[in-house]
Design a protein that fits this description.
Largest sheet: 8 strands, mixed
Structural class: alpha/beta
CATH architecture of the largest domain: Alpha-Beta Barrel
CATH topology of the largest domain: TIM Barrel
Helix content: 40-55%
Number of domains: 2
CATH class of the largest domain: Alpha Beta
Number of strands: 16
CATH superfamily of the largest domain: Phosphoenolpyruvate-binding domains
Length: 573
Amino acid sequence: MTRVRGESVAPGMAVGQVRLRGFSAEATGRRIAADEVETELNRLREALQKSRAQIEEIKQKQSGSLGEAELRIFDAHLAYLGDAMFTTEIESQVLQERLTVRAAVQTVFEKYDRIFQLVESEMLRRRASDLRDVATRLLRNLEADAERGAVAPVGPYILAASKLTTADMFNLDNEKVDGIVAEEGGMSSHAAILARGMGIPTVTGIRDLPRILRDGDLVVLDASAGELVTAPDDATLAEATAAAQRWKATKAEAPKPADLARHQTRDGTPIELLGSCGSAGEADLVRTFGMEGIGVYRTELQFLVERARPSEDALVSSYQQVILSQHGRPVSFRLLDVMAATLQVGQQGAERNPALGQRGVRGLLASQDLLRMQLRAILRAAAGAEGVAVLVPFVTGTADLQRVKSALLEERVALKKAKIACAAEVQLAPIVEVPAAAMSLAALLNDADFAVVSVDDLQAYLLAADRDNAAVRGYHEMVHPAVFEMLARMAKDAERREKRLVLFGESAADPTRVPFYLGVGYRSFSIAPVRLRGVLRVMGRYSVEECRRVAARILEAPRTLDVQKVLVNLDVQ
């Protein structure tokens, strides 16, 4: 049995046979004879037609489970398949260079991929990802005849791919994919966004998969931990199979009415459990699972999937849909939290370290038209609604918050003067992820209605460890005493000012940490809907007083090892 670590893209657990895709040579350098040209061109036309039909079918199948923004990803793929320049270049390679159609597709794709990767714009780089998906689908359809005789896994399988692409996620048998492991593919790729939206456990960053795996191998994919287990022993397999079944049940079934009434600790202390989401489909899950509203709605997807910046009216329509989906429950919209280069805002040219550059509120303040368009859209969408809030990402101090507050007030006044319906009141809150903001939380709360603590990002900056960098993953996952001391300090600051503090992120739903959070005073959580049952289970096992004792032991622990010992001994199953 071997355990291999990668990067978690979408949480969950899956057990199944492996199906390797995308590792064979995608093209051959063989030149074709003149009498083969027409045959190859016919193969291209058939593959294009088949690819378009597959994407249309996928859109229809997924229309009920994915939101508008996610479905537009497939529109981008259809646009590439219908792009005359793209197809003409492929045909030219066949006609003039006498390449096979598979070699021609690969050659043209590699040319565009190099162009996209050389530019500084993150948006164009994501288009390269879309083009890769389209080329991959074409190649899969071109090699379909060769694969017809291959032995495919029976029933659900774990897809092992060279790159995380929608072409492999969405085949005609896509409902059989229980999990995905890939060598390459980032958190922000369209395939990753869709994997999270569909609840498919996904891990990337595991190299040399053909060396590690063979078709038909039985594996365990613990995507929450970013781990692939090959040749599992009987005990590991039994435990993982049970966990995978629980995961599927969590995805498929909404909590029962009795569970919905149990958003409280064992001794009856009420806890607010809100949903974190980034699409209309996920927003529906928040309501279906009986959560108390949306604690963090990520607004980036609508900007990332469009070739052009969405209009204000398009944003209004999207945000209204989210607000209406909650039937009066609160909704907090996080303003765009991307690096400036992604949307080509702010300063021109590449930043040396964009993660510490114009990201979040900094990029928005440098692009006032974008900031104000999003604020107007939220104000208009919230007309007649209550409980709508604006979350400001990457705040460092009060000046950031005050500038956004001024813009929000000015846009509300302008809308009223123009007699455009808008919200009478919208709350404003900083997202605390920078240590400087955490240390000055008391001052921030003087200018805010509440605050949201992004645990994962705060930990990354506090420990100077990128959570997506495999080389320093151990540092980011470290249960460092400083992290717990900082969280406890913020809880006290919020309590003194009688302001609400919402804990947000993957770590906010970590069962081993929940007793600590409750013990130091956190009473509001914003978590992914699929993590709800796990948090409810832990809450039902502990009283607040027991959580306080757990927190006291953690805060007294001088070393990481001592903190780990306390967490390991907790009863969170």
